[in-house]
Specification:
Helices cover 81% and strands 0% of the residues. By secondary structure, the chain is mainly α.
């Protein structure tokens, strides 16, 4: 028993050192901007940079739009596949996994080739079109995570019985999805949404090759031109990711509390 506990604590300690030691070192280095003393000068420099605010705001807006697009595409699709096309589930799951095996640079070069200014749909010829293309690229990258999150949520409810009950009361498909299915898988949708947010905030390839002012290219640019600010940016980006994970946990707890009240 004591030997098992020892190995458990040893595994935990190694995991803690593996994940948090580089972060602690990065945080400590980011505080050395002022010679001889620790200070938050690097964080003040980053947060006071107008380019940081511009790129971060742009990425946040793109992340929110990507989440909305992902929910609009994935939720009805996963619902319909589970209800009407269960035999196609392996095919759909395989398709949703493709963004994990196809490098993003291949996808974005395909976009540029298909939608350049000499094509029938010249999306890259305007800022709006390029933003739309970037949003579609982000939705593609987040597709494996969003689809699995929603599909896992659908597994926890009896989709067929709920749908038949709603139809017997005269509900249409739009009402069934928006007022019956979506509230029941809201936690799963939120999980996929926060993962999408974390992906979009740090994404570099799509934004750089489409020449959009996103947060990922800004971090790379900062890393090549400053000493301490990139470490501060890394800590900020890591904090944002962990904040997203914390929100997932809060949403999960809130769901359990709601079920207990019922």
């Amino acid at each position: 028993m004591k030997i098992t506990r020892f190995w458990s604590w040893l595994t935990f300690a190694l995991g803690f050192l593996f994940f948090f030691l580089p972060l602690i070192g990065t945080f400590e280095f980011s505080l050395r901007a002022r010679r001889g003393v620790y200070s938050f000068d690097a964080y003040r420099s980053v947060l006071g940079d107008p380019q940081f605010r511009e790129t971060f705001t742009y990425s946040v807006v793109m992340a929110l739009l990507t989440i909305v697009l992902g929910i609009l595409i994935v939720t009805p699709t996963a619902f319909w596949v589970r209800l009407k096309l269960p035999r196609l589930r392996p095919v759909i799951e395989f398709i949703t996994l493709l963004p994990l095996v196809i490098p993003p640079i291949v996808i974005v070069f395909g976009y540029i080739r298909l939608y350049n200014t000499s094509s029938y749909l010249p999306l890259t010829g305007s800022a709006f079109g390029t933003n739309l293309l970037l949003m579609c690229g982000y939705a593609t990258l987040a597709l494996p995570y969003m689809y699995r999150a929603v599909d896992t949520g659908l597994r926890t409810i009896d989709v067929r019985t709920l749908t038949e009950a709603a139809q017997s009361l005269g509900a249409g498909w739009f009402t069934i999805i928006t007022r019956l299915i979506l509230p029941n898988v809201l936690v799963a949708v939120l999980s996929g949404a926060f993962l999408t947010f974390a992906i979009v905030i740090g994404e570099y390839v799509f934004a750089a090759l489409l020449n959009r002012p996103a947060f990922g290219p800004y971090m790379v640019w900062m890393g090549g031109n400053r000493a301490y600010e990139p470490a501060a940016l890394a800590v900020i980006a890591f904090s944002i990711t962990w904040a997203c994970m914390g929100l997932i946990q809060l949403a999960t707890r809130f769901s359990k509390h709601s079920r207990a009240q019922r």
